[in-house]
Amino acid sequence: MCRTAKWTLNCQPESVPEGRRRLRCTLESWGVAGTDAATAVLPDVLLAASELLANAERFCRRRLVLSVSAHRSRVELAVADDSPAWAVLRHPAPGAESGRGLEIVERLSTRWGQVEWDGDVKRVWWVIAVPDGSALAANCTM
User: Fold this and answer.
1) Model pTM greater than 0.85?
2) How many CB atoms lie within 10 A of CB 92?
3) CATH classification code of 3-137
């Protein structure tokens, strides 16, 4: 891994846009801006982060932890929360107003999964490929 960042957020609705803002600012500080190749996937990264944060915020008790790792050819994102409730992939009816979060994450990612409750946290993670030529690969060995 080349770069990492992690934020602990309160368990409240405002943490969803706050986490998204922090993620965007961090990726931009790592060079994902302007004509960088990774700007092509930035909307997908931010959307998946929003979905994972919103799911976690719905079930958490006190805190959420958003983490991002940039690698030579991928970005890994994880959201941990302090709820034992397992994240469930649903396939809601077309008119349903909710329930698409993990389905969106599944469609945007190369792979995703979760680490079940260990008595303290559970963690949902996903990986998205980054196009060649991104600043994220600079000085990266993996």
Assistant:
1) yes
2) 11
3) 3.30.565.10
The ranges assigned to domains in the chain are 3-137
**Which two three-digit tokens encode residue 130?**
């980054």
For residue 75, the SS3 value is strand
Taking CA atoms, 7 is separated from 4, 31, 38, 74, in Å, by: 11, 19, 22, 20
Query: Nearest 5 degrees, angle CA 55-CA 73-CA 34?
Result: 80
Q: Which pLDDT tens digit goes with each residue over 51-69? A: 899 989 988 999 999 999 9
For residues 109 and 29, give the distance between their C-alpha atoms in angstroms, rounded to a whole number.
23
Query: Alpha helices, DSSP H only, in 41-100?
Result: 42-59
